[in-house]
Amino acid sequence: MLSPLPHVATDGEPAPVIAPARTFADSVRFRDAMARLASGVAIVACLDRGQPRGLLVSSLTSLSLEPPRMLFCVRKAAGSHDALRQAHRCSLSILSDQDAEEAERFSAPGRATERFAADDGRLGAGSPPVYARALVGLTGLISGGADAGSHSVFFLDIETVEARDATPLVYFDRAFRTLDPAHSPGRP
Ligand SMILES: Cc1cc2nc3c(=O)[nH]c(=O)nc-3n(C[C@H](O)[C@H](O)[C@H](O)COP(=O)(O)O)c2cc1C
Description:
Elements lengths: L26 H8 L4 E2 L1 E7 L2 E7 L3 E4 L4 E7 L5 H6 L2 E6 L5 H8 L28 E13 L2 E13 L5 E4 L2 E4 L10
Antiparallel strand pairs: 1-9, 2-3, 2-6, 4-5, 5-8, 6-7, 7-8, 9-10
The structure holds flavin mononucleotide (FMN).
């Protein structure tokens, strides 16, 4: 749990973890603005009673070097949310631009059963599973979290890192793209 921020008035009530603003930006304008934030994407995966589960996230951030710690956020309604809350460990597989299709599979509602179905070695046999073709594969201990309303924030203390030379898959303006201007896999 995060401690309340000093400037947040609580009126004698226990402080919410995230204090809502008094006035909100228009949600359509906010969404349009956030479409301009380019981000890398990663598959978050954990084991749920021995079965791999996961989803695509762009909310990952490198939080600190000492300890090596990342954070990511998952919507409470997501199929893997509760499994992640129960899990002690999970993996983050940052995708390369060769894997726009994998990104689609891990972000399409209703395709959860397809996500770990391929038996071709790409999905990795580790625990938790790391995507074998990941640009960067990380595993770690879920060391904490925070309630953020519709989403939970997870803190991940990194235990293993594998990186390879490739070009990242980037999500920008509602499409998967590459940094290589000659090739953009998800260009609308
Ligand atoms: C580029 C991109 C980034 C996403 N980032 C997140 C994220 O950070 N957190 C999250 O909960 N969902 C995120 N999503 C949405 C989930 O991937 C999507 O809702 C997925 O279907 C959830 O898994 P489920 O179908 O098993 O519920 C993102 C989707 C896309 C296309």
